[in-house]
Amino acid sequence: MKACFIGLGYIGLPTAIVAADNGIEVIGVDVNPKVVETINQGKIHIVEPGLADLAAKVVNNGGLKAQLEPEVSDVYLIVVPTPFTGDHEPDISYVEAATRSVIPYLKEGDLYIIESTSPVGTTEQMAEMIFAERPELKGKIYIAYCPERVLPGNIIYELVNNDRVIGGLDPESTEKAVAFYSKFVKGTSHRTNTRTAEMCKLTENSSRDVQIAFANELSIICDKAGINVWELIQLANKHPRVNILQPGSGVGGHCIAVDPYFITSAFPMESQIIGKARELNNYKAFWCAEKTQIAMKEFELANGREPVVALMGLAFKPNIDDLRESPAKYIATKVMQGHNNADFLIVEPNIEDHKVFKLTDYREAYEQADIVVMLVAHNQFKELPWKEDKVILDFAGVFKK
User: Fold this and answer.
1) Helices 93-102 and 122-133, interaxial angle, to 10°?
2) Whole-structure pTM value
3) Active-site amino acid positions
4) Distance separating alpha carbons of residues 55 and 39, to the nearest angstrom
């Protein structure tokens, strides 16, 4: 079996590598020549525990080859980003472009799968596009949707062991896709239709967004009430039927911070709680920036100079290098605006450099700073000692104070 993966990013690349490690001949396609070159050297361009060694193995044994164009295969997987526009409308142009790129190669009996997060009805829309250009294939190829549901930092394990929701355009497509995933997925495959599978992915991340919004709202209330929100949540969770999540500086990443908009844009009147949760989680980042700016002004008034400020973390969650939709990055940018004389020390231990921010070692930044702003709870930060002589704004729960 030969599988062609269109998109070699945070999901496409690990999935391609795991599939290749399980005996599938994999062609990985990406529009970025540097990504293709890196992979063909047996290296990777993302940070994910255990993935580099596995990549070297499957490239060296010929199981995975990266290139700029697709080629004739048995299975085609669309694993490209689905961003949203400035007015929070989903943009499926990448999915459409990826689909168009494989249409010339499709043949009878092939399996086409979308893994990209998509608005409800996208798989049907892509099927119509395929059959409009290749009408002779109607009823002769298999089309399905199967969303990824993995956690960065634990992707290899979860790709293999998590259950999958697989929805085909028809029962035969569903079974064909289940048979494909069974070659490298040990988790249970749950069969459904394309629309339900598409909505399932959006529902999972919208549910998480709502739960995080509750924790973030609670943190704002507790700040005003003079209550340690971390202690409060720990105590409330002693109740056998309560499980409140941990608050943070907002919500980021290309799933939880994005997927709810796929629902609110299509169902604006019906998605009241989902829409409000998105607003609240976006507001939390603004609130953190505002609290930091107030602390800076208070320090300046008390000391007659602008403070040295350490902004700790840029990733959207702990212990990864992914900055997509990161609230920490937004907060750092907003705090730095209008403070030309302030000394900002930007910290992100999981990346080597950044095209906008000059990065500082986390220990050095913590030592030099007058104000320390914990934006992400990276493990390295948890090793730092609490210092009473610093103003510490712990938005991420590093010290839980």
Assistant:
1) 40
2) 0.88
3) 201, 255
4) 8
DSSP letter at 238?
Answer: T
User: What three-state secondary structure class fits 325?
Assistant: coil
Same domain, 134 and 240: no
DSSP 135: G
d(CA 326, CA 393): 18
Answer yes or no: is 213 within a domain. no
- Strands 189-193 and 164-168, by their bridges, are parallel
Instruction: State the Cα–Cα distance between residues 123 and 177, nearest whole angstrom.
Output: 14
Range of the domain at 360: 227-394
Residues 152 and 25 placed together within one structural domain of the fold: yes
Residue 85, pLDDT above cutoff 70? yes
Domain stop point among 193, 216, 248: 193
Instruction: Enumerate residues 6+ apart whose C-beta is below 8 A from 289.
Output: 330, 331, 334, 335
- Structural domains of the chain, count: 2
Same domain, 152 and 236: no
60 and 6 belong to one structural domain: yes
Domain of 165, CATH number, reads 3.40.50.720
Q: Are residues 187 and 243 in the same domain?
A: no
Taking alpha carbons only, the member of 164, 184, 187, 188 closest to residue 22 is 184
pLDDT digits (tens, 9 = 90+) for 214-237: 999 999 999 999 999 999 999 999
**Three-class SS of residue 307?**
coil
Average pLDDT over every residue of 251-259: 89
Answer yes or no: do 158 and 249 share one domain: no
Do 182 and 238 lie in one domain? The reply is no
Distance between CA atoms of residues 65 and 19, nearest Å: 12
The Cα 10–Cα 188 span in angstroms is 23
As a whole-number percent, the residues of the chain with pLDDT over 90 amount to 90
Query: 145: buried, middle or exposed (CB in 10 Å: 19+, 13-18, 0-12)?
Result: buried
Chain center to CA of 363: 27
